[in-house]
Design brief:
Length: 71
């Protein structure tokens, strides 16, 4: 019985709740907007990997912004 409850807890930790996923995308897109002229919407795919998680973020951008190096 204990093994079963541990497996359920593990599954719950592997899945990112939808509310948390939306916050993650919102925060990530704020940073992306510093480097790109972005368009609406982004897709996030989080999958289990042997070392932890693999996170893939896809979004559309019209252009890369010109960055000036400090001198």
């Amino acid at each position: 019985m204990k093994i079963r409850s541990n497996n359920i807890a593990k599954l719950e930790k592997d899945n990112m709740p939808e509310a948390m996923r939306k916050l993650f995308v919102r925060d990530l897109m704020k940073v992306a907007e510093e480097y790109f002229e972005t368009e609406e919407g982004a897709e996030v795919d989080i999958t289990r990997s042997p070392d932890g998680f693999s996170v893939c973020v896809l979004f559309s951008a019209r252009r890369i912004k010109k960055m000036w190096s400090p001198q």
